[in-house]
Amino acid sequence: MKSLRCPLCRSREQNEIFTWESMPVFCNVLYKTREEALGAERACVRLVCCGRCGFIHNAAFEPERIRYGPHYGNPLSASAHFRQYATRVAEELIRKYGIYGREIVEVGCGDGYFLKLLCGLGRNQGIGFDPGYNPRGAGS
Ligand SMILES: [Zn+2]
Description:
This protein is an alpha+beta fold. It has helices spanning 34-38, 80-97, 113-122, and strands spanning 14-24, 42-50, 56-58, 103-107, 125-129. It binds zinc ion.
């Protein structure tokens, strides 16, 4: 077991939920050929839940294997269906939690599309963080 302690509360009470022995390291990479896709770099995913605080994480995560490159991209906003779904979710979150005129931080914001929705619909301001963010490819 690589991670014996909860990364949040440091508890050793870690309960395994599920293990995938061979999963693609990235799910947002477009390959030119089927063969390239089938040869994608793989790693183990072992989800564990902390018995103390409930945090779920991948205990087999190897951060050194995460290398964002030009083939990485996760923008979903090209899909009209996704845009409609994201707008509905943003409207519901804003209404349910009264998110108006606030400052929002999104960790793992991708191209910032959803954060921009939250800001535009609720007159909020936002800051997003994502190691794969590409300002040239960001949605409007
Ligand atoms: Zn914990």
